[in-house]
Automatic annotation (TrEMBL):
<keyword id="KW-0479">Metal-binding</keyword>
<dbReference type="GO" id="GO:0016285">
    <property type="term" value="F:alanyl aminopeptidase activity"/>
</dbReference>
<feature type="domain" description="Peptidase M1 membrane alanine aminopeptidase">
    <location>
        <begin position="220"/>
        <end position="434"/>
    </location>
</feature>
<dbReference type="InterPro" id="IPR042097">
    <property type="entry name" value="Aminopeptidase_N-like_N_sf"/>
</dbReference>
<feature type="domain" description="Peptidase M1 alanyl aminopeptidase Ig-like fold">
    <location>
        <begin position="439"/>
        <end position="530"/>
    </location>
</feature>
<keyword id="KW-0482">Metalloprotease</keyword>
<dbReference type="GO" id="GO:0006508">
    <property type="term" value="P:proteolysis"/>
</dbReference>
<dbReference type="InterPro" id="IPR001930">
    <property type="entry name" value="Peptidase_M1"/>
</dbReference>
<dbReference type="InterPro" id="IPR038438">
    <property type="entry name" value="PepN_Ig-like_sf"/>
</dbReference>
<feature type="domain" description="Peptidase M1 alanyl aminopeptidase C-terminal">
    <location>
        <begin position="535"/>
        <end position="849"/>
    </location>
</feature>
<comment type="similarity">
    <text>Belongs to the peptidase M1 family.</text>
</comment>
<keyword id="KW-0378">Hydrolase</keyword>
<protein>
    <recommendedName>
        <fullName>Aminopeptidase N</fullName>
        <ecNumber>3.4.11.2</ecNumber>
    </recommendedName>
</protein>
<dbReference type="InterPro" id="IPR027268">
    <property type="entry name" value="Peptidase_M4/M1_CTD_sf"/>
</dbReference>
<dbReference type="GO" id="GO:0008237">
    <property type="term" value="F:metallopeptidase activity"/>
</dbReference>
<dbReference type="InterPro" id="IPR012779">
    <property type="entry name" value="Peptidase_M1_pepN"/>
</dbReference>
<dbReference type="InterPro" id="IPR045357">
    <property type="entry name" value="Aminopeptidase_N-like_N"/>
</dbReference>
Length: 851
């Protein structure tokens, strides 16, 4: 496979006026009949050839303007069908084809496939070419008419339903769309239905389609959908544009969900929820993913991407919008902290390793490998920065201009930035470097105070990344304020824009040396190289007016404490423990905020912290040290934590809202820090009394940590028939296993009758239970964890390259570790790379990781 480059983009030779598709569904031999009206694109290449993508299709027959084609009329390869211009009747013509495909044999879960007897599609990014011959690229948009023939009771596609009868249904989607938004579903499904009236008075039927028996788990998703629709109208003034909006839950799905026009398809784990089976976190995810896919209707569907390099145009923007939505629905500061935690855990890690790439990549082999934290989460941060730089009003105007100007088009990042330039008359060419330079910028801080004058010097640098040794300065908005040594805010938040390599600001007339609060609200996705004194951070922790920076101060104290413990066994400073105790007990703070403040950095964060401090991380030592600190906190804070455990009982009627889930989070944090002190007695009582999955899992985790011999079996026997809950059972057991036992346990569990490795959720639960959930187990010095992952990647790759490729990122940090571990990982990477018949997906990932 060869790399595709942004610089090589060429407009399509032909555009499409309309598409008619007809499906005769059959598990082993589905017929797809297409009728497509093509028209020459004045901007296309001179050669005028008709180039259609097509993979794994058996061509039955093809016609142009009604005349059958013979094999002499076209060129057919494994990936394309080309009709030379000379064989085409002119500038516009009708292409018809009948092809046969076998959804039953499609284990890659891309194209048309089957899951539990139901037919389902995944077209993004390039799955439509496995359904029929087509110019499968996002800059070809067309209205679709679809007929589905099958005896199954529910037959769905995009748009509005136009007719239905025994054994068939017809759908018409009037909004021109690229093929990646095509969807079809057929199965024995049950609807949960509701209605919504849009701001322009349109009545919309809402349906969530699930397997029989799951109807009572759709309430939260439906509520989240209606709130998303209302929010989108209120905040972005965008209404829904079809008579019907369908959501389908499917068990076998490679990712979270998919925004197909009018027919969103979801991994069932992001739709189905009841208090007994789903955690507060699950409810939160459902709300945000329902919103995300719905918001794509405007940012993604009505306005789409010209090519896949522009993926962040729809993903970064839609993530930013779903973040705004959650900030409005729940606590904004808590949401911001959670998003930054995610960004640092996933995106900074990516940006610091061999897989670093631009938010808008320059080249790819398999585009599915670029649905990354960088494109999504860093992409969202760029929009957050833009909004901060131009201001809320200009942002709103720019968005309205974007919708007006580009509705129905396939756009680029240049188009996106142009609306901001046009609204603000501001030159964004330097800002654009955020899209074209990989790597996380560092901002180094120097302070100087003399005679009442405070000088703050900020210096920006971006480390080299693969293929990008040198970087130019970007525009970095740094929100900052000043506090007096007594903790009073003397200078409220203002924004400094760093545009040069070094910027100094001078503030005079100060009575005392100020304490700066920098990068408030995490105003830019950068690493702040700043080592304030312990006292300054303790002051920010106690008094900063910016909640993000309060949390950040506590976080950095915890990180430093852990690194000092690791380096030479230094005990945690009593002042740190006391600060934590005060914060935990501070009733002026929300419970969810306090729960976050009590959470220690993850083992992977500590490993990255060690690297940043110039050390080689030892996962085994990190695990042990983190455990020691947890126990120390538990002992030191016991009275506070016990009091919280009693006080934070959210009451008898479960609700997943932010208030209640915050209380549960704080209560479960208190439980988690103290569980070892009474040999698990309270954890067991908690587990047994739990009437919801959040509490049950909190108890389960503690009991696994303590080594309760029966708890895994008890949980299994209670939930063996519930597939989503059993995913948690696989994951948690491995994540909470003692590191030296984790690989063996993972291996044993792969032999469990419920380990269906072809189901992506189940596979991910088990494997990432080890690779993400138990880093010390995964990095066991024997190398057994590496071999385990490599074995399973090789095995899964034959069936499902996308999921295999994604899971290979567990190796992306390998250069952090000691020479022995590096050698063990290198050997596994070599073994994978040398496997016969490796998919382009996995081979691209392994090649980049090894480079
Ligand atoms: N757009 C889809 C992701 C498609 C991934 C293809 N490998 C979901 C989303 O971001 O909303
Ligand atoms: Zn998306």
């Amino acid at each position: 496979p060869t790399a595709i480059h942004l610089a090589d983009y060429r407009p399509p030779n032909y555009l499409i006026d309309e598409v008619h598709l007809s499906f005769r569904l059959d598990p082993g031999a589905t017929r797809v009949i297409s009728r497509i009206r093509f028209r020459a694109n004045p901007e296309g290449l001179d050669d005028g050839n008709l180039i259609l993508d097509g993979e794994k299709l058996r061509l039955v027959e093809a016609r142009i303007d009604g005349s059958p084609l013979t094999a002499l009329d076209y060129l057919l390869t494994d990936t394309h069908l080309t009709v030379p211009a000379a064989r085409l009747p002119g500038d516009s013509f009708v292409w018809e084809a009948e092809v046969e495909i076998a959804p039953r044999d499609n284990t890659a879960l891309e194209g048309l496939y089957m899951s539990n007897g139901m037919y389902c599609t995944q077209s993004e990014a390039e799955g439509f070419r496995k359904i029929t011959f087509y110019p499968d690229r996002p800059d070809v948009m067309a209205p679709f008419t679809v007929r589905i023939e099958s005896e199954l009771p529910v037959l769905l596609s995009n748009g509005n339903q136009t007719s239905q009868g025994p054994g068939f249904a017809e759908w018409h989607d009037p909004w021109p769309k690229p093929a990646y938004l095509f969807a079809l579903v057929a199965g024995d499904l049950r609807p949960v239905s509701d209605r919504f009236t849009t701001m322009d008075g349109k009545e919309v039927a809402l349906n969530i389609w699930v397997r029989p028996g799951d109807e009572d788990r759709c309430g939260y998703a439906m509520d989240a959908l209606k709130r998303s629709m209302t929010w989108e109208e209120n905040v972005y003034r965008r209404a829904y544009d079809l008579d019907i909006f369908n959501i389908v839950a499917v068990d076998d799905f490679n990712m979270g969900a998919m925004e197909n026009k009018g027919l969103n398809i979801f991994n069932s784990k992001y739709v189905l929820a009841s208090p007994e089976t789903a955690t507060d976190r699950d409810f939160d995810f459902i709300e945000r993913i329902i919103a995300h896919e719905y918001f794509h209707n405007w940012t993604g569907n009505r306005i789409t991407c010209r090519d896949w390099f522009q993926l962040c145009l729809k993903e970064g923007l839609t993530v930013f919008r779903d973040q705004q939505f959650t900030e409005d629905m729940r606590s904004a500061p808590v949401k911001r902290i959670e998003d930054v935690l995610q960004l640092r855990t996933r995106q900074f890690r990516e940006d610091a390793g061999p897989l670093a790439h631009n938010v808008r990549p320059d080249s790819y082999i398999e585009i599915n490998n670029f649905y990354t934290a960088t494109v999504y989460e860093k992409g969202a941060e760029l929009i957050r920065m833009l909004r901060l730089l131009v201001g809320v009003e200009a942002y709103d105007q720019a968005l309205q201009l974007y919708f007006d100007r580009h509705d129905g088009q396939a756009c680029t990042i240049e188009d996106w930035l142009a609306v901001f330039e046009d609204v603000t008359a501001r030159d964004l060419s330097q800002f654009k470097r955020w899209y074209t330079q990989a790597g996380t910028p560092h901002v180094t801080v120097r302070e100087h105070f003399e005679d009442g004058t405070y000088r703050l010097t900020l210096r920006q640098t971006v480390p080299p990344t693969p293929d990008q040794p040198l970087k130019e300065p970007a525009v970095i908005p740094v929100a900052f304020g000043l506090l007096s040594p007594a903790g009073i805010e003397t200078h409220p938040t203002r924004i400094i824009e760093l545009v040069d390599p070094e910027t100094t600001i001078v503030i005079d007339g100060l009575a005392e040396r100020p304490v700066p609060s920098l990068l408030r609200g995490f105003s830019a996705p950068v690493i702040l190289d700043h080592a304030p004194s312990f006292e300054d951070r303790a002051l920010l922790l106690a008094h900063d007016t910016d909640p993000f920076n309060r949390w950040e101060a506590g976080r950095s104290l915890a990180r430093e404490t852990l690194l000092a413990m690791l380096a030479d066994g230094t005990a945690p400073a009593p002042a740190f423990l006391d600060g934590l105790a005060r914060l935990a007990a501070d009733e002026t703070l929300d419970a969810d905020f306090r729960a976050l403040a009590l959470a220690l950095p993850s083992e992977d964060d500590i490993a990255q912290g060690a690297v940043d401090a110039g050390l080689v991380p030892d996962p085994t030592a990190i695990h042990a040290t983190r455990k020691t600190l947890k126990e120390t906190i538990g002992r030191h804070l016991k009275p506070t934590l016990d009091a919280l455990y009693e006080a934070m009982d959210p009451g008898p009627v479960y609700s997943p809202d932010a208030g209640q889930s915050g209380k549960r989070a704080l209560r479960n944090a208190a439980l988690g820090l103290t569980a070892h002190l009474d040999a698990g007695e309270r954890a067991l009582a908690h587990y047994e009394a739990a009437d919801n999955m959040t509490d049950q899992l909190a108890g389960f985790g503690c009991l696994l940590d303590i080594g309760d011999p029966d708890i895994a079996t008890r949980f299994h026997d209670q939930w063996r028939d519930d597939r989503l809950v059993m995913d948690k059972w696989f994951l948690l057991q491995i994540a909470h296993a003692a590191p030296e036992k984790a690989v063996a346990l993972a291996e044993t569990l792969t032999g469990h009758p419920l380990f269906d490795w072809k189901n992506p959720n189940r596979f991910r639960s088990l494997v990432s239970g080890l690779t993400v959930g138990n880093p010390a187990g995964f990095h066991d010095p024997s190398g057994a964890g590496y071999a385990f992952l490599a074995d399973w990647l090789i095995r899964l790759d034959r069936l499902n390259p996308q999921t295999a490729a994604r899971m290979s990122t567990a190796f992306e940090t390998w250069k952090r570790y000691d020479a022995d571990r590096q050698a063990l990982i290198a050997a596994e990477l070599t073994r994978i790379a040398g496997t016969d018949g490796l998919s382009p997906d996995l081979s691209e990932m392994i090649a980049r990781i090894r480079a």
